[in-house]
Amino acid sequence: MSAAPPLLCDQVRTKGLFAYVFLAIWLNVPIGCEVLPMQASTKNIPHQVFVDWLIQTSSPTALAANISEYCIHHTQYYLTALDRRQSWAVNMYESSGRLAEQLLHTDSQNVHHSSGLFDECLSIQPEDVPFQGQYCTVFFENESIQEHENDHHYRSQAIPETSKTAVCKEGEPKEHKSNFLMPSVGFCLPSTCSASDLRSAVAQMVGKQLINKTNFTTAVITNENYCYSQEKINTNRLRHDKLAMTVMTVFCILIALVLTATVHDSWSGASSSSSDVAQQTFHIKLLHCFSAKRNCQMLFSTKDDVKDSLACLHGIRVVTTCWIVLIHVAGEFSQRMSYTKQLDIKNASRWEFQIFTNGLFAVDTFFLMSGLLVAFTQMRQLDQHGGFFNIKRFYIRRFVRLTPVYASVQLFIATLWSHVGTGPDWNYVQQMSKSVRQNLWAHMLYINNYVAAIDQQSSLSNPLTGMIEAWYLACEMQMFWMSPLFVYPLWRWRKAGLIWTIACFLFFLGFCMALFIAYDIPPTVLFSRPSAMQKLDEYCRKHYHQTIARIPPYVMGILLGWLLHKNKDRKIHINKFLVIAGWVAALLIGLLVIYGMMPYLDEAKIPVINSFVRISYGAFHRSSWAVVVAWLIFSCTHGYGGYIHAFLSSKFFLPLSRLSYAVYLVHFAYIKAYVSHMRKPMYVAEYYFFTTYLGILMAAFMLSSVVSVIMEMPFMNLDKLLFPNGLEIKKTKKEDVTGLLTKNKCH
To answer: Where do transmembrane segments lie in this chain (predicted)?
Structure first.
């Protein structure tokens, strides 16, 4: 056979790398040990050198120096098997990503991921080979030499001249954020190669680079937590975690109790009518609190049995919940595991996407409704009890209503969550689970928004922040603790209470404005402005998670609840022109809140946001949105909502509205697990994104229905059974008397 012609770079552009490796093997080309420098041109290179480059880009330990003896020996074993075209070696080669030089020339707006085949790599377990397939991810970060000469987080390592590479700094693992925000390559290696071996091998390949005449080094970041083998996954089993086993046992007991109650409820043939329920013994009533049959009937009922209910709130609650899930899905997909980060940033500036790229004020809808319901229901209780405010019962009932299901979700995340899947980024889930376990006490005391703020490394992308969305539950509970300071004065002393509440509202707004003046934080989360994103964590600590800064919409809800309670038995008549003016004003204010930052999204055109715009928008846009929602609720309640009221008051929303709290608790953990489980990053396109979003939304509601039936509703039933209010007692007595008279009449 004649000598093989050289393989040229132009040919490489049109052919697959994998084909050229086996072309060289078929031609009996030896695999040498000469290193191809990353900066060199590949034109007219002898084909054996080019084959070396192909192998090295998919298996860096093949030609590396200064790595462990086992790693070198087993890598050579793998290359020999690849030369013989053994199936397991071919699978290992196919399971690796490719290290391209241009990967290092990407900026923060172009994060490239070259992923391998995760499951195929872990399935490599040949019987005659002393190692398994191991999938490891390497991350890259360009660091200026001048910036980090004295940084103890980085250490320089001199590479021998024989490797023909320059000095390269090796970064320590970054546990304070998701590493997949940086460029990455996934390699399939022998399980005897450590993360340190891989880091050293890749560092020798990368060397020193020069971009735009700026001297910098490429930090090669690896971590044993981002190296996975089947044996390693098997050793991380549930039985080795005592707390996880304890939690699972408790969950199993609870499920057994639910099944027992459901079977008894079904076989007893008892009717759900109030008369039959009243004749049951206390122990039977206690057991039936956990009946899935009864709880499902209550959950999916389209009958609203609450007197003076504000029907439009159900639709607003469901729409806002879907909106928040949309925002979180968009944020996770664009910030982590995405090939198209630059396109994602560009899309953040499009007007049609502002509803979720600039939609974080949606949560203020919940703050407004929470304040409204607290004031409306508690003032009704004050009317019924002649002004007696049972402060002890007020707080206990709230804690019992929210905490059991919240604690169950927290315990699941802290113990069982990390065992339900695998993936290249599953370490993010494991770190998040660990953080939730460590800070469980703060969540149960509802002070986690301030505990997390103490850690200056806390970040929205930090897995150690734990259950990120739980800040809302802490803020809302702390607002609830303060609510009697406004509700009772408004009920007892209307004018004085009104003046006091409005004065406090203005004080809270002033405090919020002072935060933006003192700390120079951005007006909101602006994904397309790099300078604003650099201050994102400071923005969250100083404003977004601060209860006093977020309480104005809650106080507005209390005022609205007082107004609706005061006029609950009569309709407020408003001139139709004023109604039209109110709707137009609400529409304009809503558009201003959504699109108010549009002129400032492109930092290249407007490098600095005007201080007046930054402070006024940052301090007032959330309260302005609360005004829009308040007008919507007021109009629908007093007959000025038209078709909007008919839509929001639809009985279709009733079951979904009951699930909104559970959806909020479970959806973000599901999104995190979904992204961390992904074997490859995604190309975020409109059709793919919305299809995936709808699937996640449906899954969130399905999971929430299970959580609600097993955890949330049983404890709500227990609360009503053990601590009935005055109306329930009177209703029960009346039903007992009616049942007795009916029985006597029959006799």
So the answer is: 17-36, 243-263, 355-378, 399-420, 470-491, 498-519, 547-565, 577-598, 625-647, 659-675, 687-711
Residue type, 233: I
Q: How sure is the predictor about 450, in pLDDT bands with cuts at 50, 70 and 90?
A: confident
Run of H or E including 429: helix 426-438
Predicted pLDDT of residue 501:
96
Model confidence band, residue 241 (pLDDT cutoffs 50, 70, 90): confident
What number of other Cβ atoms are within 10 A of residue 746's Cβ?
Answer: 6
Could you please report the per-residue DSSP string of 6-62? PPPHHHHTTS-HHHHHHHHHHTT---------TTS--TT--HHHHHHHHHHHH-GGG
User: Domain check: are 144 and 265 in the same one?
Assistant: no
pLDDT digits (tens, 9 = 90+) for 173-219: 555 566 777 788 899 999 999 988 988 888 887 765 544 445 566 77
Question: If you write DSSP's letter for every residue of 277-336 in order, what string do you get?
Answer: HHHS-HHHHHHHTT-HHHHHHHHT------TT--THHHHHHHHHHHHHHHHHHHHHHHHS
For the chain, state the CA radius of gyration.
31
> How far is residue 167 from each of residues 56, 74, 203, measured CA to CA in Å?
19, 27, 8
Higher pLDDT among residues 509 and 233, named by residue: 509
Q: How far apart are CA 459 and CA 462, in angstroms?
A: 5
Domain containing residue 253: 237-299
Domain boundary, last residue among 299, 319, 336: 299
Two tokens at 72?
Answer: 């070198």
Q: How far apart are CA 511 and CA 515, in angstroms?
A: 6
* List of residues 6+ apart from 291 with CB closer than 8 A: 258, 261, 262, 264, 265
What pLDDT is attached to residue 352?
Answer: 85
Whole-number Å distance between alpha carbons of 18 and 116? 13
Q: Is the pTM of this model over 0.70?
A: yes
499 compared with 439, residue with greater pLDDT: 499
> How far is residue 440's CA from residue 545's CA, in Å, rounded to a whole number?
18
Token pair of 191 as six digits: 């399980």
Alpha carbons within 13 angstroms on the beta-carbon side of residue 357 total 24
User: Residue 737 above 50 pLDDT?
Assistant: no
